[in-house]
Amino acid sequence: MTTTPDTLPGTDRFDVRTTADSHFGWLRTRLSLERTMMSALRTAVSLIGFGFAIVQFFERLAQMPGARPARYPQVPEMLGMGLIACGVATLVIAIWQYRWTVRYLWSGSFAAIAGMTKEGLQSPLVAIAVLLGCVGLFALFAVLLRLA
Questions:
Q1: What residue segments make up the domains of the chain, in order of their start?
Q2: Distance (Å, rounded) from C-alpha 56 to C-alpha 125?
Q3: Is the dihedral of CA 139, 140, 141, 145 positive or negative?
Q4: Positive or negative, the Cα torsion across 34, 39, 44, 49?
Q5: Cβ pair 28, 34 in contact under 8 A
Q6: Residue 66 Rama label (left phi>0; alpha psi -120 to 50; beta)
């Protein structure tokens, strides 16, 4: 079995030229990564909010005068907790994917076309995602322990 230079561990897959075109291509890729992360945040907010709203709506509905009791009263709570858990899982996966891709964009010869320092590696999106994950976990435990 023969190996070629592009299959050896530790070698670069691409010939990266330091030009304005490659630099702006790198920037477009980085901004695309930011948009993808914001989409994941938006999806997670929707899942967490909708899950919490389902639980609250059906709890209030059961307390209304004249409402007949539900056949399976735990189903809305389980659905809501499932949606909240999916929102938190979306955040965890999105953060992992984001950090992995950012490390790849700064690795090897790509660092030469980045055109900025490593401080440009940081983004407020990760902090917002972690904060939103904490909110999601609080909502999950609030529903689980009936705090809300």
A1: 19-62+73-144
A2: 29
A3: positive
A4: positive
A5: no
A6: left
Which residue, chain included where needed, has tokens 């609080």?
A: 138
State the alpha helices, DSSP H only, in 6-146: 20-63, 75-105, 110-114, 124-144
26, 113 Cβ separation under 8 angstroms = yes
10-residue averages of pLDDT along the chain (148 residues): 46 66 80 92 95 88 75 84 95 93 79 66 84 93 78
**Size of the chain in residues:** 148
Task: Convert 38-57 into a string of H (helix), E (strand) and C (coil).
Answer: HHHHHHHHHHHHHHHHHHHH
Q: How far apart are CA 37 and CA 42, in angstroms?
A: 9
Structure tokens at 15: 């010939």
Residue 64 is predicted with a pLDDT of 75
C-alpha Rg value of the chain to the nearest Å: 23
- Measured N-to-C along each axis, helices 75-105 and 20-63 cross at an angle, to the nearest 10 degrees, of 170
